[in-house]
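If your schedule permits, I should be very grateful for your opinion on a structural question. I have a record of one protein: its chain in single-letter code and its fold written as discrete structure tokens. Would you kindly read the sequence against the tokens and tell me how you understand this chain to fold? Thank you for your consideration; the sequence and its tokens are set out here.


***
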Amino acid sequence: MRFCELKEKDVINVCDCKRLGNVADLEFDPKTGCIKALIIYGPGKFWGLFGKDCECVIPWCDIKQIGPDIILVELPPEKARCT
């Protein structure tokens, strides 16, 4: 799967059934080259014109399934907050 295909998928948290957003970036392990986490940007500050308000980093171990249209993740509410 290519990154451009991954970016088009919605990320859904199965704990509270909320849409977290779309994949914006990936975090890699420099030694192994494996994906460590997905990075998802939160909503924009002012209709998306003045940058993003926050970002969520989802560890690879919290991804439950990658489907044709969505990515299901399991994040507890305290871990799902954007930083």
Observations:
- The longest strand covers residues 18-28.
- The mean pLDDT is 83.
- Residues 15 and 77 are 8 Å apart (CA to CA).
